[in-house]
Write a structure and sequence with these properties.
With 164 residues, this protein is α+β, with helices and mostly antiparallel strands. The protein has helices at residues 6-21, 28-33, 63-69, 74-90, 98-106, 120-123, 142-149, and strands at residues 37-41, 49-52, 58-62, 126-130, 137-141, 154-155, 162-163. It folds into 2 domains: 6-106, Zincin-like (2-Layer Sandwich), CATH 3.30.2010; 125-163, no CATH class. Helix content is 41%, strand content 17%. 23% of the residues are buried.
Amino acid sequence: MTHPLYPSVKAKVEKWWEIACGIPHRNVSLLRERFPEIELSTRMTTRAGYAQGLHKPRIVLNANLLVQEGENFNATIGHEVAHIAVNILMGEQCGHDKRWGYMMTIFRLPVVRCHSYNVEKIRHQRFTHICKGCGVQMSLTQNRLTRMQNGQVYICVKCRTPIN
């Protein structure tokens, strides 16, 4: 299932990717061949995103923070695109070095290593669930809810009915 914000995120990645492909560099042809896979994850809690891979690049972004922060999250998207672009151009993992910082300035984004988003809302997010057997209300974490959606069976402590 694709996240509803995926098309707008992909458009932003494409915008910065085109800028990166316009840089005169001997490996720019590799950059054009390796557009990153984009994933929006609802499982991340404090991390805004990460980039990985040289040959099969991938950007994973925190979908919860994306929704919460809106347009403020654009710098994070550009931050991860800069990582992938620099890594491919240089042929190695570059981290937050001067080359990554230079790419951020080309993107006209702040050269900032860490985000300052409020993660408290998503970090301790809990979901209310009502037992169908006895009607008791229980609080579930995101992890437990995901496990239940993936087939894990939990049992109500009060009436011993499977929770689903």
